[in-house]
Amino acid sequence: MKKVIMGNHALSYGAMLARAQVISAYPITPQTQVVELLSEMCADGKLEAQFIKVESEHSAMASCIGASVAGARTFTATSAQGLALMHEMLHWAGGGRHPVVMGNINRSMAPGWSIWTDQNDSLSQRDTGWMQFYCASNQEVVDTVIQAFKVAEALMIPAMVILDAFALSHTYEVVDVPDQALVDRYLPPFKPAIKLTTDDPRAFGGLTGAEHYMELRYRLEKDMERAPALIEETGREYGKLFGRDLGLVDPYLCDDADFIFVTSGTAGYTARVAVDELRAAGVKAGNLRLKVFRPFPFDRVREVLGQVKKAAVVDRNCSYGAGGIFYQEVKSAIYGRPGMPPLFGYIAGLGGRDITTESFKEIATDALAKDRPEEEIVWIGVKK
Amino acid sequence: MRPKKAKKIVFKSAEEMPLMICSVGHQTHNLTGAWRNIRPEIDLGRCIKCGICWKFCPEPSIDVVDEWPVVDYDYCKGCGICAEECPSKCIVMVEERK
Amino acid sequence: MSQDAKNEKKFTMTLPADELMACGHLACQGCGATLAMRTMLKALGKKTALCIPACCWAVIDGPYPYSSLDVPIYHCAFETAASTATGVKAGLEMTGDTETTVVAWAGDGGTFDIGIQALSGAAERNDDIIYVCYDNEAYMNTGIQRSSATPYGAWTTTTPVKHFKTRPKKDIVAIMAAHRIPYIATASVSHPEDFFKKMKKAKDIKGTRFFHVYAPCPTGWKSRPEDTIKLARMAVQNGYFPLLEIENGEKTTLNLKLKDRKPVDDYMRLQGRFRHLKPDQIAAVQAEVDARWERLLKGCAA
Fold first, then answer.
1. C13 contacts in B (CB within 8 Å)?
2. Subunits with at least 3 CB pairs below 8 A relative to chain C?
3. Do B55 and C19 lie within an 8 Å CB cutoff?
4. How many other C-beta atoms lie within 10 A of the C-beta of residue C161?
5. Which of A3, A190, C34, C92 is deepest in the core (most CB within 10 A)?
């Protein structure tokens, strides 16, 4: 059924169609509509779930973990400061292998108070053992939530579905809301092999000495390495049922491109417009949108970059003292490999500042004028 | 009830470990009697079977065998609560023989 | 009694024989917290799930891949005993297990300090869990640092003798009573039958139930391990730790009415952590205990 819904409601629909059984959340701008709609769905009986109205994001994630270990499918959503408050519990979900799925609305970290988008909140959670999916449309949000549950539960690794504040969270788009019966076929009920039960009493997460800890983390990494193939496989399966393939990356006109933008989130769709305009002006441009950041899609990134002459990574984030985070990661993915292009790094759009087609053209002009990057970070649109 | 003297668990590889971090064995493999410096000895001739030593044992390492209290020295840590609380003073703490 | 008659006599058990806590655990000699666990599990039985945050019990249970208990445990983050328990309860209910009693089992640091937000949240929502705080009056697991449950006068590693703690213990029971939850009880390891009875009662109540359990710690109190029960008993008998129940935040019942309360002096003298206190300082503790006791009697009468 086609519906015009906002990005936040796309998260709610995803959780509803996935038949989340326990939802625990705390309000934060710009996430509130996600949980408001889910509260209504629970109250109306459209969704058979317990909604725990906790007193903090920390408790939200703690109770999701508790519900997950008891065998329930769990969902929450947050943003920025809330995600940061959860940080400890993200490690708990990742390290404990609890496949919670969470929506995160990318919002800049305070201070100063900002409710507008950038990616430093979610990228600060890079090493917590969560998968991270960056979405660029409301359709992709609904679809990705459903897929995220499937992948998360198969690997017992939690997953974050991420969308830009306002640029997506509050933007209304036409969404083909998947049919419940088909979703049920795609995503069977969560039946973990081990769970907390009095029938088979076990102590979870006890004191773990040096003789065991490393093996447990080795297994987490090995299972994370299985994720890219599984995301593509379940993405194709999703395509067969719903007509939309879900992949690790979303290339646009990359096959014959000389120069590409590497982007994530909604900036990717703006980049496409810039690509079209550059092509009209005679530049063979393209765009590679990274949808999955963890696990890092090494193979897909190398494939695409291996066939272009130059690439510019556009980061809506900054690791202070090292520069754009996607830039650093893409660079390390291609390091030492033959046939890889010079890679340029740009930071734009922090704190919700718009990244426009003009921003992309400025980036293209800068990168195309140089043989090699002259600086580690080039700031776009900043008043220096 | 758990088996006493459960087996110690040795994983030979990461794959043998359950995916989730959870217990697969009993802590009874750990014979805490080795911690003891003094040991309780019960003079059953004076024991009135009041059950006080049993109910206050934090291990619990006082078993009830044929309706009599029997110290399980594999686990008794020698805290001395049983001797202190015994109303008939039939438990004495004596130096552990090493 | 003749030996024959004694041979015939049954061994007295004032609590059920079944043990859900096994030996081999890692508690110190004479640990009160361990005895509290043993007694609680006798009352709640096998259909019980525990959420244990950072506290002595995170270690006592035994390291991975072992456990000392015959009930499932989730070892959770320090400040999340209540919120994890809420989640476990919801998860169990949504997967068809409405029977299991979910218990958050935390120390005083995890309750009075770092976990109080999650506890207050769960209590305000009246989540269907039992929260047990076993109180040994300091951060014992990390090496005896002061908590807001540490009483006036006590030495800890962060309140050294020259700067012993001068603020009183936080009144956690009053804080919980202000949440008007259905059931609050205090209990002491010296009175296991009383603890057992209250835990049985709590098991059949729906909503948030809170237990404050007095659990002496020989290691942290610098007391003799064999004095654990004696100290707990003295604290009850001198009014330092009264045994009571509060229903719906209103009706307070004193379980053990004391005609002649003993002075706190003897109790404090058995503990190295109070050794430095001068008579006037002990008198100040006595005055505080007396005042609290009077308030409690008034509260019961009201």
1. 51, 54-55, 64
2. A, B
3. no
4. 10
5. C34
